[in-house]
Structures are given as C-alpha cells and as structure tokens.
Amino acid sequence: MAEEEEKSLEERIGSLRLPNDDEVFGVVEASMGSGHMKVRCKDGNMRTCRIPGRLHKRVWIREGDVVIVKPWEVQSDEKGDIVYRYTQTQVGWLRRAGIWGE
C-alpha cells in the first residue's frame, strides 16, 4: 500500500509544473492592487510582481499562495512576473516530496 502511494506521489510530482533555471518559488505576502503583488521569494528577495494578462482573469491569487516567479532581466532583485500558482493540494504534494518547505 505504501509503495502504491509513493508511486502515485512521484507521478503527480512528475506532471507538476516546477521552476525553470531562471524562475523561483515564492509566497504572496500582500496584494497591492492593479494586478501587482508583494512576493517573498525563496532566493531571499522581496519582489513586486505583476500578474500577466493571460493569467489575470483566469487565476485568482491571494495572500499566502505559493507561486512561481520569473524575475525581470532588469531590476531582477526587485521585480518579476507571476507565471504559475499552486493549489493547496499541489503544495501538499511538494511538501511530501521535500521540494517545498516553509
């Protein structure tokens, strides 16, 4: 039974969106309005991130959500774009796999 759970967890993690080389995990700290958020990133920076138009009406992002941030090429330590938001179930899978820990 435990082996089946382990396999299904690995399959779920395999199909889950993970950050690329130029992207980082982050947690939304505050909403600033107009599609902008303050995000505390895993690399230690606090960034002002925007929600691109393709996600703006499709994905609702709230404080405390785990997201993937793509830092801008200019002002990369201060600004970025939110490219993906994880659901609470997906965050649980990431924690069990040891990828995400707060």
TrEMBL record:
Pfam families associated with the record: eIF-1a
CDD domains given in the database record: S1_IF1A
Entries under Gene3D superfamilies matching the protein: Nucleic acid-binding proteins
GO molecular function, one term: translation initiation factor activity
Transmembrane segments: none
UniProtKB keywords: Initiation factor, Protein biosynthesis
Keyword Zinc on entry: no
Segments forming domain S1-like: 14-87
Record SMART domains: eIF1a (SM00652)
Similarity-based family: Belongs to the eIF-1A family.
PANTHER family: EIF-1A
Role description: Seems to be required for maximal rate of protein biosynthesis. Enhances ribosome dissociation into subunits and stabilizes the binding of the initiator Met-tRNA(I) to 40 S ribosomal subunits.
Entry protein name: Translation initiation factor 1A
Organism: candidate division MSBL1 archaeon SCGC-AAA259I09
UniProt gene name: eif1a
